[in-house]
Amino acid sequence: MELLPPVARVGLFESGPVEPDNDPVLHGSSLAIVWLQATPQPPSGHDANQGLREVAWEELAKDHEV
User: Fold this and answer.
1) Nearest Cα to 65, choosing from 35, 24, 13, 21?
2) 32: three-class secondary structure by DSSP
3) Is 46 helix (H, G, I), strand (E, B) or coil?
4) Which of 13, 28, 36, 57 is deepest in the core (most CB within 10 A)?
5) Cα 53 to Cα 26: distance, rounded to the nearest angstrom
């Protein structure tokens, strides 16, 4: 039997707009990510899971008006 890691984490990340035609003063982008991990400590820098460090932001994030 395979077991899932015991800790679920949710992150809401924000950045400048993905679409180059959107004004960076009026627009931003955001992406919510949910992942499972073995420990309760938040991931940071090089200790973060490879999948989290390589998220395809331009493909997955959505632009919105600020």
Assistant:
1) 24
2) strand
3) helix
4) 28
5) 27
